[in-house]
Amino acid sequence: MDRISIRGGHPLSGEIPIGGAKNATLPLMTAGMLTDERLTLSNVPRLADIDTMAALLSQHGIAVEPVDAEGRTLSIGGRITSTEAPYDIVRKMRASVLVLGPLLARTGEARVSLPGGCAIGTRPVDLHLKALEQMGAVIDLDGGYINARLAPGRTRLSGARIVFPFVSVGATENALMAASLAEGQTVLVNAAREPEIGDLAACLTAMGARISGIGTDKLEIAGVARLHAASHSVVPDRIETGTYACAAAITGGRVYLRGGRLEHLGAVVRILREAGVEITEDAHGLDVRRLNGLHGVDVMTEPYPGFPTDMQAQFMALMSVAEGAAMVTETIFENRFMHVPELARMGARVNVHGASAIVRGVPALSGAPVMATDLRASVSLVLAGLAARGETVINRVYHLDRGYEALERKLAACGARVERQAG
Ligand SMILES: CC(=O)N[C@H]1[C@@H](OP(=O)(O)OP(=O)(O)OC[C@H]2O[C@@H](n3ccc(=O)[nH]c3=O)[C@H](O)[C@@H]2O)O[C@H](CO)[C@@H](O)[C@@H]1O
Ligand SMILES: C=C(OP(=O)(O)O)C(=O)O
């Protein structure tokens, strides 16, 4: 297995290109199942998760073909030939459950492996299932699979008023896609407002869907009988942007994040500024630098526009070298502090009490061999390694490859001493 080796202590300086968002691309690819015509997606990041989704779509009979040499523009299309999403693919990536709404809407049936838990939490899909049941699906769970079909006598899903008891990004996406082809009006109340939802809604609109309330927590969808071909450019990755902003800050450097957008960062900008990071925007990206010391700032993860859980680990790495203390509270996932013991091995002082961690900043971290069990935890160790004295070796690089394209090349181009070692 590959490893990443970092020799820390070099302020980053230079430019980092921000790619399209993984968490926008995955649902956008499943939206390609909503029509027999072609959906062309550009600004697609080259990531392991995108390959996994392409493999899943091809299992359903949908071809995902690169249009350009680099594979950043994908053409998605074909007729659905199988309505089964097998365990072997779904277990690799939870976002696979996003085929459920499109399969049901298009064919009236779906058999999708239950995604199961993962390192960060149990992550049930009950809200996805309830929403689809309210739209006329009959669902049972059997042998680890979700078996879904239209209720007897129905030929299409039907519009419904769906009130989510709490915010779920994935359940909002599945319901939004299903509602686009349902008969009649659907209202999604307490819908997720993440920029990736807005991006999906914009793409569906280009495909002929009738959606209002985009960007708010109440989406109204007037179902249409069919959707058609469209082209869509994927929104820039706000989590990649925030991660590299933390990289600049933790090394005391300055980077230009080409393609980064302030409007999508939500609370991250305010919190980073409070911590002593300067962020300015121009027409093409963000200039991020740390002028003086870092200060401890408390954060609590929340649905967008609050501070994202996908930035919690990176921010904790930053706080581990800030002056003073910071309380980091995780409210979205019950087990998202796996980076804490690894950061502690590098000299960070962190105490976890239930859903909160108290981080007491230290003057310096020291390099160590580390590993993590999920994507953002892994990248938080990369950030810590960039700031630490000596060498840090990060194992289980495949987690990073799920969500960070060319991580070591992007960092090395800004002066980081980082390399991938084939294992
Ligand atoms: C591919 C993708 O976009 N992944 C993101 C998406 O995951 P994902 O869509 O899985 O996250 P959700 O917003 O659905 O999860 C939020 C919370 O709701 C719970 N829940 C969710 C659905 C459900 O049916 N029942 C239930 O209890 C989850 O366990 C979690 O505690 O949003 C998360 C929260 O911003 C991010 O961390 C993930 O990076
Ligand atoms: C948790 C994440 O992804 P997923 O929902 O695909 O596990 C993430 O992107 O940080």
UniProtKB/TrEMBL annotation:
EC number: 2.5.1.7
MF GO annotations: UDP-N-acetylglucosamine 1-carboxyvinyltransferase activity
Transmembrane stretches, start-end: none
Pfam families the record matches: EPSP_synthase
Record keyword Transferase present: yes
InterPro entries linked: Enolpyruvate_Tfrase_dom, Enolpyruvate_Tfrase_sf, MurA_subfamily, RNA3'P_cycl/enolpyr_Trfase_a/b, UDP_GlcNAc_COvinyl_MurA
Domain Enolpyruvate transferase: 7-411
Coiled coil regions, renumbered to chain: none
Residue numbers binding phosphoenolpyruvate: 22-23
UniProt-listed PANTHER family: UDP-N-ACETYLGLUCOSAMINE 1-CARBOXYVINYLTRANSFERASE
Functional summary from the UniProt entry: Cell wall formation. Adds enolpyruvyl to UDP-N-acetylglucosamine.
Name of the protein in question: UDP-N-acetylglucosamine 1-carboxyvinyltransferase
Organism name: Acidisphaera rubrifaciens HS-AP3
